[in-house]
Design goal:
GO molecular function: serine-type endopeptidase activity
Keywords: Apoplast, Glycoprotein, Hydrolase, Protease, Secreted, Serine protease, Signal
Mean pLDDT: 89
Main location: secreted
Pfam families: fn3_6, Inhibitor_I9, PA, Peptidase_S8
Number of strands: 40
Strand content: 25-35%
Largest sheet: 7 strands, parallel
Organism: Castanea mollissima
Shape: globular
Helix content: 10-25%
Length: 779
């Protein structure tokens, strides 16, 4: 039978149509968000504003300009800390745009993650220590200092954001209270002075936000942003607690400071284009401090959009504090390592939440928990203890069932029993949920080698106790050798005066800073374990959607919690010293930090129980009272940071991302990156074996009494001799600058870095710089 020609043509047309649809779909999928940095000064005179010029540039590279306007492609226009746009492009379009005149750099979108009381008293900020040292009693509460918090938003009804007694918002403030579902203008006040949302990059990457299940407004349904904002500048709230744990007065580090909430994180994460827009907007609004408890890995300075934006913020006088990350105890796990960013690690306080596991053989295991005791502990009148089961083998390798991952527990085995779950892979509280759903009556959360003996308390959904690796191994041995192994729990509430403390948290990310060994990171550590602060009313304390409990305060751990401690204390310093630069504030925090715990021994690393090093704790643990009066500061101007970049083997086009509209150029004032006037000193001997002598230079500014005389003291080292010249600094006026140099002469190369310190003392002040000496030459 003959083929119908009309039918054949129709089939060809249909095939062609589907092919085009497929290609169109591929084209859509191929588009992603790029951040385009522009040279603001290169705008031709034919344009009246920069956005029109940016739009013209974007339109000129579109592969189908007649079908798609650039208006839909451009998502953000950056104008203050950064100049350019965030735009949707295909890879080919991005490559074409990168060749255009006036385009400085193009960055692909990057996904960032959140780095997820007692601390004011522990940090000597309250009158409990000395009325003379009561920082809040010295009328520097910082009413005109504004801290921008980039996070998941804010829960405005929390008592921590009460503005009672606060003065009117300063007239210089240009921020805005953006409204949306669940957030109205009335939710801003003299404490919460601004609230903005940024989601264009997030939606471009993940699809439209479901406004029915997620607040597309500054309202926080995650809790993380509320917790960090309250830690920075929460108003005092008496009787704050989490289910009777940590009962007391909760307040932020700078309770008189104001908060501007910039919501950049959503259910599926945080994206660089949104973060960059928030930094840009916050600087334009007039914040004094930026608190950013998130990170996205490490890339070269010129490829890190947050680093570039932070550089712009620093140029405008804004102090930027970022979390170091929760990648510890692995070395070289830091994020946010740029020298103009204050990078904060986490430490413990002298408060704990002890719980015990009593085994059937009479042995007592010590652990921690925030489970709300139901009066009968884990006992009832008929049964004193319950059987224990461990679903893994006793090998060193972890298994899905030993980790209590979702769907891995057999109800027939675990029902009515206490289940041992290994820590890792899934959230700690989620393991308890898995046990509960499988019929278990309790959980013992056992640390592995990755966590060592560090204990983090959680608000579990069922009776549960977290124990260290050593105790965990002992319980597993007991279970494997005793067919009728049993246990019971006891929850002992809140205990103060824990010794030793502080201790560097095992999860806190570690150095060295592999981008530039001469810049010691982290900068310092601050409380980040078991921190009580305000919480969202939308989610239970376990953060699990199945948790029906609602609390006003929650206890969290992470460098996300330590970062706002530093941000709030920086706000205190800014209130006391409004003319100080971000570098001066950072110097005061670092040079007054302490490196001994409350037993007068060196700070310890929780993961090893051995002394920690500057790669773990940076300059040491923050001491806000001493930081208010540091005596001397190491100041750094924007051009100095640029000169540091000039030592980093960057090309002129790569350096241009930092010069932007300021037209900075290299003056080559630094002989090496180690000569940046950083408060920490890192001497790196290069691979050339002939280099036996290394000299680094520093300049200090007197911010203490006009007439001050300082004398240098330096710790001894095995591998080098250290000479400081001059050994005395004699100041005759305030703000006078004096310089010195430190010469390191190799005695014998060491296989591992050496640590020590240089201290300048005048009888009142003790200005300490950590010293790290590293040999790159093979031993």
């Amino acid at each position: 039978m003959a083929e119908n020609p009309v039918k054949g043509v129709f089939l060809i047309l249909i095939s062609y149509l589907f092919l085009n649809l497929a290609l169109s779909a591929d084209t859509q999928i191929a588009k992603k968000t790029y951040i385009v940095q522009m040279d603001k000064s290169a705008m031709p005179n034919s344009f009246t504003n920069h956005l029109d010029w940016y739009s013209s540039k974007v339109k000129s590279v579109l592969l189908e300009p007649e079908n798609e306007g650039d208006e839909d492609r451009i998502m953000y226009n950056y104008q203050t800390a950064f100049h350019g746009v965030a735009v949707q492009l295909s890879q080919e379009e991005a490559e074409r745009l990168e060749e255009e005149d006036g385009v400085v750099a193009i960055f692909p979108e990057t996904k960032y993650q959140l780095h997820t009381t007692r601390s004011p008293l522990f940090l000597r900020l309250e009158a409990g220590y000395s009325t003379n040292n009561n920082v809040w009693g010295q009328k520097i509460l910082g009413h005109d200092v504004i801290v921008g918090v980039l996070d998941t938003g804010i829960w405005p009804e929390s008592e921590s954001f009460n503005d009672m007694g606060m003065t009117p918002v300063p007239s210089r403030w240009k921020g805005k209270c953006e409204t949306g579902r669940g957030f109205e203008e009335r939710h801003c006040n003299k404490k919460i002075v601004g609230a903005r949302v940024f989601y264009q990059g997030y939606e471009a990457a993940t699809g439209k936000i479901n406004g029915q299940t997620e607040f597309k407004s500054a309202r926080d349904q995650d809790g993380h942003g509320t917790h960090t904002a309250a830690t920075v500048a929460g108003s005092p709230v008496r009787g704050a607690n989490l289910q009777n744990y940590a009962n007391g007065t909760a307040r932020g580090m700078s309770p008189g400071a104001r908060i501007a909430a910039y919501k950049v994180c959503w259910a599926g994460g945080c994206f660089s284009s949104d973060i960059l827009s928030a930094v840009d907007r916050a600087v334009a609004d007039g914040v004094n401090v930026l608190s950013i408890s998130l990170g996205g890995g490490v890339s070269s300075y010129y490829r890190d959009s947050l680093s570039i934006a932070a550089f712009g913020a620093m140029e405008m006088g804004v102090f930027v504090s970022c979390s170091a990350g929760n990648g510890g105890p692995d070395p070289v796990s830091l994020t946010n390592v740029s020298p103009w960013i204050t990078t904060v690690g986490a430490s413990t306080m002298d408060r704990d939440f002890p719980a015990i596991v009593k085994l059937g053989n009479g042995r007592i295991m010590n652990g921690v928990s925030l489970y709300k005791e139901e009066r009968m502990l884990l006992k009832n009148s008929k049964q004193e203890s319950y059987p224990i089961v461990y679903m893994g083998s006793n090998s060193s390798s972890l298994e899905p069932s030993s980790l209590c991952l979702d769907g891995t527990l057999d109800r027939h085995i675990v029902e009515g029993k206490i289940v041992i779950c290994d820590r890792g892979i899934s959230p700690r509280v989620q393991k308890g949920q898995v046990v509960k759903e499988a019929g278990g009556v309790g959980m013992i959360l056992s640390n592995t080698a990755n966590n060592g003996e560090e204990l983090v308390a959680d608000c579990h959904l069922l009776p549960a106790v977290a124990i260290g690796e050593t105790e965990g191994k002992a319980i597993k041995r007991y279970v494997s050798t005793s067919p009728n192994a049993t246990a019971s729990f006891a929850f002992l509430g809140t205990r103060l005066g824990i010794r030793p403390s502080p201790v560097v948290a095992a999860f806190s990310s570690r150095g060295p800073n592999f981008l530039t060994l001469e810049i010691l990171k982290p900068d310092l550590v601050a409380p980040g374990v078991n921190i009580l602060a305000a919480w969202t009313g939308n989610l239970g304390p376990s953060s699990l959607p199945t948790d029906p409990r609602r609390v006003k305060f929650n206890i969290l751990s992470g460098t996300s919690m330590s970062c706002p401690h530093v941000s709030g204390i920086a706000a205190l310093l800014k209130a006391r010293h409004p003319d100080w630069s971000p570098a001066a504030i950072k110097s005061a925090l670092m040079t007054t930090a302490y490196v001994h715990d409350n037993t007068r021994n060196s700070l310890k690393d929780s993961s090893t129980d051995a002394p920690s090093s500057p790669f773990d704790h940076g300059a040491g643990h923050i001491d806000p009272v001493r930081a208010l009066d540091p005596g001397l500061v190491y100041d750094i101007e924007a051009q100095d940071y640029f000169e540091f970049l000039c030592t980093q083997s960057l090309t002129p086009s790569q350096l241009k991302v930092f010069s932007k509209h300021s037209n900075r150029s290299c003056k080559h004032s630094l002989a090496s990156p180690g000569d940046l006037n950083y408060p920490a000193i890192s001497a790196v001997f290069p691979e050339k074996a002939s280099t036996a002598v290394l000299t680094l230079h520093r300049t200090v500014t007197n911010v203490g009494p006009p007439v001050s005389n300082y004398h240098a003291m330096v710790s001894p080292f095995k591998g080098v001799s250290v000479h400081v010249e001059p050994q005395s600094l004699n100041f005759t006026r305030k703000y006078q600058k004096l310089s010195y140099k430190v010469t390191f002469t190799t005695i014998s190369m060491q296989p591992v870095p050496e640590f020590g310190g240089l201290v300048w003392k005048d009888g009142v002040h003790r200005v300490r710089s950590p010293i790290v000496i590293t040999w790159l030459s093979p031993i």
